[in-house]
Fold each of these.
Amino acid sequence: MKDAARKTAPSDFANKLATLSPAKRALLDKLSAKGKHGGNTLIAKTLRRLGISHAYCLAGTPIHKTMGACIKEGIRVLGVRHQQAAVMMSLAHNYTTGKMTSIAMASFGPAVTNMVTGVLNARDDCWPLIVIGGRQPIDTQHMGCFQDLDAIPIFSPITKWTAAVRKTEDIPEYLERAYHIATEGRPGPVYLDIPVESLERSATLPPSPARETAPPPTVDTQKIKLAADLLSKAMRPALLLGKGIRWSMPTEELSRLIGKLNMPFSASPMGRGYLPDDHPLCFNGLSTDLQGGADTVIMVGARMNWTFRFGSELAKDAKFIQIDICPDEIGRNITPDIGIVGDIKTVLQALLAEIEHSNPADAITKDRCSWVEHMDARRKERNSQMQALSNSDNIPISPHRMCREIRDFLPRNAIVTVDGSTIMAAVQQVIPSYLPASRLTAGVNGCMGTAVPYAIGAKIANPERPVIAISGDSGFGFNAMEMEMAVRHRVPVIFIVANNGGIVGSVFQNIVAPDYTERTALFEPGIRYEKIMEAFGGHYESVSRAEEIGPALARSANSGLPACVNIFIDPDVPPLDHMG
Ligand code: ADP
């Protein structure tokens, strides 16, 4: 109210200011701004203080000045071709580093709405994210300004927190708050609307607030004892794990737990690699068998959503132990026998303290061995099915054979991002993951178009590791222009296009219009996607025979450039199971 009154009735002081010569006015501004910073610099300085090292943006008014201020503060600013990709790159950057080290920023109106899908991914994959959107002066709302948008109602339902920073002096506090909300408890996205007036005025940067972080939930020792008791007596225990373990990294505790109990495990699509896929107790792709056969199941860092079939695959009398930092998650779709709210690492340490010194009865040890042997037999059966599929010499190349060739090329420390339908399933079935946060899929909401920007964000955050994006030709189309960004910023990712000529190859076309009057779900035949990379100045390859894949990948890696490898694969493969 006060601000509005000031605006309509300028004070005498303001009148006097208006009479000053430009030179005197500039001098006065300089003196009065002593110790103060403009809004853009305040953003940059606060981000830097929070440990943000990278900002993914698309230059536009008003954030072009914020981008400049970030560069002055030593933040690497990367320019994308679509704001959706900026958010996705930031997500992959944060996930692969395990910390919030990057943010995404966009200018006004449509630039801001272009970020919605990436923000949705952050919500659905429980990933930390700060997104900053520009905004026309709030007082001018409803005047019909260029690209005017109140983005608050758009982002509120899909973020942990959404706010408009109306005053310059509030910028540091809002950013600090955004950082903590995005990273504490269950991670998630925060959206900040920063109107032009906040950017243009000046304020001082207060010292870093001494923040009182909420104490982690105290672990319920009674429940720990009950869970330890259930697990100790289990004859057929099983562990289900997901990518939520990224944020406390209890990999050592998990190894000790499965070792102590001789407990088989299965990971969610992105939960793979935290315990390596070649671990003898790893039964990825056999989650249905594992859940159906186990008498006690413990779930960490994952949810009983569609990924694990809402719990419907658990044996009727199986005991279920669920650990999650988010109290609302406990009991979703299925009531656990024991639900423990807390940080996974802390809970597992308490659990291990109870279990580790006990010795199971011989009968239990024997039962657990037979359980693992049973699962082992299932794994052998499955491996031979996969091997048969992967050995196909067919032309066009089968998706499984393509994946076998990629697998044989990849070093153990590679990061693989993947989207698409048929192709994502084949990748999950054939290409293993050995290290944490090294497999990024289309995620819980199955978002197409993620493979390209996730790979770029992952490579920028992990320049020493090989990063490869495997996209379906449909998924590739969403963000293919970002290959130019990769060339410009020198980000040598290998982008593979699994080209089956349409959405799920020919499968959807056969449903949409079987008579092929118009190609609605099939694309133009024989598209040479690698030519896009030729135009951008990167390395490019096209492959139609399986034995050409390895050499094409080797040339791509040796080029030191971002590379696009277009691989023609069989369009007539029926849809596959995504759980790998
Ligand atoms: P996935 O897709 O791998 O199945 P989800 O993203 O569905 O995994 O689930 C991750 C789960 O991990 C969420 O329910 C989230 O609350 C939980 N989580 C995240 N961080 C922690 C933590 N530090 N301790 C316990 N649970 C956590």
Note: The pocket of adenosine-5'-diphosphate is lined by residues 125-126, 186, 242-244, 247-248, 268, 270-271, 301-303, 307, 324-326, 329, 343-344, 444 (CB under 6 Å).
Amino acid sequence: MTKIKNYINGDFHNPIQDNWLDNYNPSNGDVYGQIPNSSKDDVENAYNAAKAAFTSWSKTPLDERSRILIKISDLLEANLQRFAEAESKDNGKPISLAKAVDIPRAASNFRFFGNAITQFASESHESIEPNAINYTLRQPIGVVGCISPWNLPLYLFTWKIAPALVAGNCVIAKPSEVTPMTAFLLGEICNEAGLPKGVLNIVHGLGGSTGQAIIEHPDIKAISFTGGTSTGAHIAKIAAPMFKKLSLELGGKNPNIIFADCDYDDMLDTTVRSSFANQGQICLCGSRIFIEQSIYEQFKVDFVKKVKALKVGHPSKSDTNIGALVSKPHLEKVKDYIKIAKDENGTVLCGGHVVNVKGYENGYYLEPTVIEVPNNNCRVNQEEVFGPVVTIMPFASEDHVLEMANDVKYGLSATIWTNNLKRTMRMSSQLLAGIVWVNTWMLRDLRTPFGGVKASGVGREGGFEALRFFTEAKNVCIKY
Ligand code: TXE
């Protein structure tokens, strides 16, 4: 049994009230560890450590902060296999994905922001009045909270803490209680990299108690959150009257719009990936697929054939395409949506059943599922399923598909497949989304703004957007 601990003030601590949660291995349903179910007192200890470290950390020269983050990146890369195995075991994702995406991206997050901070300039203005100048100071906020989800555990955890730290803040971070392992392992890496004690504090526990204690803490001045839309709304209600800065990266129900003039084979291969990567547990997955009428029947045959060829298996196997879903409750939630879709006259073209992987019968496995839906108003097209389930339906015209694509409460990302430049520009400007991919999916440049509109969240992460979020701008005007 792996008993992980909170990382506070550079050391590892049991929860003060000695409350623990079971940690499950989704690939076989076994309890394989325990995590602290931390209380307000643990959060207060973390806050006091962060507060005590803030003065010196915020005054640490930029190039020293940068050097430490790049050292963390180097150490993550040197420990890739160990972290990838831990991530795959905790989340259920294939080891191939953890090794190729999750852990390298976590290392990139530290390296990118370790470099970006040295390029982060702020503006000055020769005033319109003679002999006066304005310049902007971008100062760290103080102690900030970072709360992250279970789908891309270390990837999204570090996407928040890297910019927060390098901007000079001290951090209290809570990973999801469902996937705590790699955040726990990160603590040792930070110590080895020379991150001063108390600068980063990692507190584990349930969202409604430990997470809530972070949100409610009067002296934690900013919260960066990624997770469900309903949770985001709940957090905003608490944080707003406390005037905390908020960054909310929430759910998505992303359209994947396919025109007949696309590069068909490239579209097909990428659409399989954008539908089922990480068992469909990525907020950016294209879960609503709209296909131009003239190629709809052909697409249906070709896409279903490729989906049926995907291998559902144990995450540790190198030939596994679809691993285990993250938890039993989540598996049940996704299965419910398949039933709801059928009740609303959807037709399951392939998948729809749990899979008994030999030797791992208690694991949380589900076939990749394609459902043909009669319209865009059905629940499976309106609500985030967050599993290996996509819907398909034809569209007759650009206006028709644009209306359907935007007719959902979310607005995170959208994908368009076409070689028509004018159509690309028209559609991209009218799609209600924070990210639009054309003839690709999940091609990421960390300098670009990342986030959604409508119920997909508030604010942007990435590049200088993240550094602006984690700093306060102060304008100084001098008359000389
Ligand atoms: O998110 P939650 P989960 C969506 C997806 C998924 C749903 C729930 O639909 O099914 O959200 O996933 C902490 N105060 N996405 O359970 O519950 C919680 O402990 C403070 C999309 O992961 O929102 C965890 O650390 N914190 C998303 C984090 O919030 C609270 C990726 C996320 O938990 C809290 C993941 C509270 N009251 C899920 N309640 C994306 N856009 O990438 C919970 N938490």
Note: The chain has a mean pLDDT of 98.
